[in-house]
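If you are new to this repository, start here. Below is one unmodified record pulled from the training split, so you can see the exact layout before writing a loader.
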Amino acid sequence: MTIFSNIQHPLAFSFGILGNIISFMVYLAPAPTFYRIITKKSTEGFQSIPYIVALFSSMIWIYYATLKTDATLLVTINAFGCLIETVYIAIYIAYAPKNIKIQTTKLVVSLNLVGFWVIALSTHYLAEGPTRATILGWICLVISVGVFAAPLSIMKKVVRTKSVEFMPFGLSFFLALSAVMWFFYGLVQKDIFVALPNIIGFVLGVIQMVLYFVFKNYNKKKIDLEQKLPTTISTVNSNPLCEIPKYNANKDTNTYDQIITLKSTQEENVEEEPRKIISTIQPVNDVIKDDMKEDDEIIQASIDCASIIQPLNAIEDRSQMKTMEAANQVYLVEIAA
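And here is the target side for that same chain:
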């Protein structure tokens, strides 16, 4: 098997070369993330599962390509995928916390060593010729569909948070473009196991780009709106509802003196003019009612002020929580075949 045998299929060779170039760029897309991990010496909550699954997929596709003719271009890109994913996983394990390091190592051993060799040995000894290639082809197709479905969680997060922070447009564009190249490669080669999963990859790539254009300016508009809102302090000072009447302690003293004076007057005149008692008590009641009315106004003004301040404080708390949210997810979809 040599790469020159693909000259018999010039379209397949052309699409295969373009697919290799674009997939090469897709494989290098997470490089800045791992550079950040190295510089900060911390995985910062990033997940290793996408890279472990991508390594497993590349290994299976290489084994499948060795059973096919004119499939050298599948071998080349997946060999590079195995190399770069191994580097990513090694960096992740080196800087991950101890418990996550152990979990990641167990997953690599169980999936990429035990799982791969179980599939390889079982298909080698239990199937022969075209049957073996067909069984491996279906296994590769299922794995590729699973890998292509990985961005669904990212798209769900974009819709929920209205943020495209974890779904850059460039990566989505190259994923869709790579899927197109490998689809036509599989179509020309009459290999449905290569062509079919890339249809799903192309559709998901287009959906990601649509979501990007829908939500790319959402956060900017939201920030502009919040900047136009008055702060809590300025609202308290300027809103008429928050102009709470001040409590007058001197007035209470004066009221008390008035009550004592009126009571004294009552005691002096109670024997001489009994009928004047009611008219004498009435001013006392009026004074008490006026004070109670003023207290009610103070309480109502405080309630109205609180109803204004609480939503603004909620906005400020939400903004603070938003800035504290850690970027804790990265995704990679392999379009190797």
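Two things worth knowing about this chain: Residues 227-324 form one domain. The radius of gyration is 37 Å.
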